[in-house]
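Checked the freezer inventory, then went back to the computational side. Two predictions to log before the end of the day. The first one is the construct we discussed on Monday; recording sequence and tokens without edits.
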Amino acid sequence: MRKHPALCLGLAATLMTVMLAGCSRDPNVRKQKYLESGQRYFEKEKYREAAIQFQNALQVDPRYPEAHHRLAQCYLKLGVWSGAYQELMRTVDLQPDNLKAHIELGNLVLAGQEFKRAQEQAELVLQKDPNNVDAHVLRANAYGALQNVEASLQEMQTAIQLAPDRSRSYLNLAVLQINAKDAAAAEESFKKAVALDPKSVTALLALGNFYQATRRWAEAEQQFRRTIEVDPKSPTPRAALARLYVAQGQKAQAEQVLVETKRVLADNPEGYRMLGDFYFNLGEIDKAIAEFASLYQEHPKDLRVKKNYVQLLILRGRLEEATKLNDEILKANPKDVDGLIHRGQVLNRQGRPNDAVPVFESALKNEPDSAVGHYHLGVSFSLLGNLARAESEWLEAARLNPNMTPAQSALAEVAMRKGDVDLLSKSAEALIGADPLSPRGYIIRATARFARKDVAGGEADLKKAIEVAPQNPLGYARMGDLRLVQKRYGEAEKLFEQSLERDPNSVEALRGLVGIYAQQRQLAKALARVNTQIGKAPDNSAYYLMQAQLLLGSRDLEKAETALAKAVELNKNNMDAFLLLGQVQKARGSLDKAVASYQRSIQENPRDVRGYVLLGIVEEARGNWQKAQELYQKALQVQPDYPLAANNLAYSMLEHGGNTDVALSLAQVARRGMPNIPNSADTLAWAYYSKGAYKLAIDLLEDALKTAPQNATYHYHLGLAYQKTNDRVRAKDHLEQALRINPSYARADDIKKALAELAGS
């Protein structure tokens, strides 16, 4: 019987559906489709999308080596180093003969400073393929990192012999020759790389960078301009040319290059954003904000422009505007890592680090390898007084991104605070590696070398700081500090003046000049110099603070108060000025004014505990001990181990019938934080006395009196402690000394009563 056409078509469709369903259930087909889709995204440089597809393939088959390898390559492009490492390790485990993966793994561990492991990966590949050029290059770089200069150069020559026409091998050789301090040979290698590939932007830029590093400015400029001609649509050579002008102190020329870049590359986000980034890197935040505000209007769909604009608003303290724009970002994507980090930064600046911590932790849950997230989480912990956690987060940020200068700078500050010279040296080397044309790394390394008594090495670093950035004031100021310590006053004065010529707001330089004149007892000259600089930089809050300090030296309290009022008017975050203003007002008998100044300092800087403590001291002096205790407690809420607040609160509690167990605990905190301060010994002794531990009290008070033998309170407390141990002679001696030192002592009646008891017993 003849079949109906419609039935045949229906049967064919059914069969096709069954076949397709079978294919869609076939795991090999599914994983291959995901792999191919991921590769298409990868070729379009959409690495996040590619990574998702490769992950989908691995959900189908967790032992799919091609997917592991390609996912690793995505992570390498995205800078997700820990993910790349894990995927490469999995790849070589599943596919030991994947030599390319071994090479990539070797280069990754080399970047992580695991030089021996990098060498091992290279040798493993060479056992299987002795002529593998990439393996010879990897081993050469590993040898170089291990300071085996001769072997590294020999290995690189082998790589070149195997592939003599490969331009990038000569670039690698040049770097090794620079490390071997053979600049002439390095230059020839750079030129050979260019000759082999005249249109290679990488080779041309490398030669230009070499000329710049050797201060051959004209040749460097010629090279960068040639690179622009080769690839006029690339922003990279234009950025290099701008950096060259900055290195020579020619900011106007650099700005002109980037204005032109913005015009020529108006459709290239990397190109049109460069001018704003230039202003930001120079610290010209207001210009950067204006530029990104304009870009945001011109390119409202460029999310990076919007995020940069938000970041700049945060830096300038325009938190309300930043929050409004950032909320738009998070509304579109609540898990946006940059948006969460921005929100955390705003909370930190609002004095709410407790609220910021979970926000940063949420960001890091979404992107565990975010160096920026770890850095700002460290800032939160630092604001909370948890310095151990802060250091841990900064170390993680530096591990994830060794070139992240804020993290390295934060670690350098930690190192200086702890006296950890090894950490200081490590941070300095990282800063130099990240930005060899910045003076900061050399200056920090100089500090580390001075700590190790290597004066010659430290001085060489300061000279290098001036050499690489001759227009930067910091190198001159630090060299001036060295000459001041060496009492080479003439040279120091010249260096400080050179620093101020480059930056009229160089606080370090003006402070150095004041130090010279102070050491020579020329306070009038110091004051005159500060006044002159205020004329050149009238909006510098720190200068008015210096002016006030010098006026106090001549006991001119009225003018000092005026100068300090100006300092806090110019900068509400100048806590030193706020606190000194309160002290001057207190000294002039204006307690109400002092209280107002301290209250304002707390309002403007709620995370600085000093305002609470000094206001507490004033309130105690006015008899408001309950208010004083509240202020000390608030200080300890901000910084739980702040010793002065703990000491004052403990003493106040002991004097006014507070919980002696709590007071003892606080006094112990204070003593740990101020082990060489006699006042902390007295407070802890008084707590022990209240608990009946008289022998412990006596030991502490005897120690305190060695430092402050004329303190009536210490003698009074020690006399009472000896009385409790029935040592009548010593008790009488110390009580009488207290009265001799201060006949009108506030506890004079109590002392006389104790002496009467001793006489009658």
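The second is the one RB wanted added to the comparison set:
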Amino acid sequence: MTVLRRSHLPRAKRCGRRAAACTLLLCLLTVLLSSCAPASGESVPDPAAPAWRKYADDKVTLDWYVNFNWFTTTWGDNVVAKTITEETGVSINFITPGGNEWEKLDAMISSGDFPDLLTLGFWEPHVGLIINEGLVYPLNELADAYDPYFWEVSSPQRLSWYTHPDGNIYSYPNSSYTPADYEAHNNIGANQTFLVRADIYKAIGSPDMTTPEGFSQAVRDAHAAFPATDGQPLLTIGLYDFNKDGCYSLEEMLMNFLAIPFEKNGERYDRFSDPDYLRWLKVFRQLREDGYIADELFIDRRAQVVEKVGEGRYFCMLYQHTDIADQQIYLYEKAPEGTYIAIDGPSNERGDKHTLPGVGINGWTVTMISKNSKAPERAIALMSYMMSEYGQKLIYCGVEGVTYDTGADGNPALKPEVLELLNSDRVEYNRLYGADNTYWMLQDNAMQLSWQNAPQPPLAQPKEWTFPYTVYMPEYDVTITDPEVAAAYQRIREAWGSVLPQLLLAPTEQEFDRLFGEYLALRDDLGYDRVAREWMRLVDEAKRKLDLDGSLNGDVGR
């Protein structure tokens, strides 16, 4: 077996009647290009035959880096992991950052010590750096060389979206929705929610929390009525953790609840300077000054936040309901009235509807194959396996006869004992079965919609609450790849990450205004205008690629 190690990979389409001549010519040009065709005796891969089928008896362990320090799942001995290993020959050794994800990635890039596969958030600036530094294979070349079946199981729209300017595809997304997916399904909601603990909210009169006055009063009332819960101090507000870029809850999420636009008159709109946004940041500052926001809000990491959700410690939260599903199930089993429900949250002064983004074509994470991979042909075959309808059904439903049975309607129905465990003890469920997207790195949520069971009571309400507010706007999920502009953008993000906690900790509103003015001046010095122009250019390009401007004579719904 010829294993390719660098960027000169064979393309099956190059290997036809003139394969020998092509190879000879290229070899005369450079020895490295001698690998442009399959080795002698090897056949051209059959596009209709999944490559993983021929590897079942050839065992290999691939290292898979997942860039989230909260991810603690192992490959284990569960039903799904065992089945994948039996059918593909691949076992996985997951690697995660023990601490700061950025520092871990920086160290990996500096050392060149990369695992076989990598999964990062699509928005991470390291994605562009890794690609531009030539550290990962083009998936299209690996597919042509080893597994043309990849083209059968991948989405053309996602491939087009993730095609690099050089014509190559270096990554493939999970949790991605295309415009066609939104046209085909009416039950795709947003993840972003404003959540309140149902029993506390009801006890204080189910107040309107859409206005600064109503929000502040509800927080004060909750604190007065429930100073403690289960013997621990009540935390009035829960948010995503503060990091070097800021706080997701108090940026994109809050801005979307306030229906702040991304652009106006064909130019990028400065959402950070929007009057409604600043007004609400000052609400949080005042609550902090008055003693209703604890210090731990600024220091807790995501794992600690999620743990406190499971304890019911927060009164209200700006949080994605999908990220606390397991904790919701636990709370429901313990006391149904103590779960979190979604309600209308912070709104702009006009009272406009929230504009919560449905997951776009970018998805959530992207997966790449490292040029350090010990077996790139196995990595691409594993990706194809997991991306296929067969693999998705396994990853989501498990194994027929073990975790589910096929009903008269042809749809999978989880066995009662499996469903009960899923809804009561996710850790044990993962250990035994490993389905329901335990291994989510290449999950295709749109494909899985047809297999999903109706959401259980603690999960259904937050999901269904988002339906009226969900807006498909993937054109704004652009990533700046120009190295200089991306560096400027990152410096601006870090400047915001530094000033945001200072704004909330400011002793007076006047000090808040002073600090924010200094931030705007620094932002300009760091190149904000250039970033804004490049961002808008990418947005316009994204609209054309998605045909949101009708330039391709398509009829893509919003």
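For RB: The chain has 24 helices and 17 strands. Residues 78 and 517 are 55 Å apart (CA to CA). Let me know if you want it refolded.
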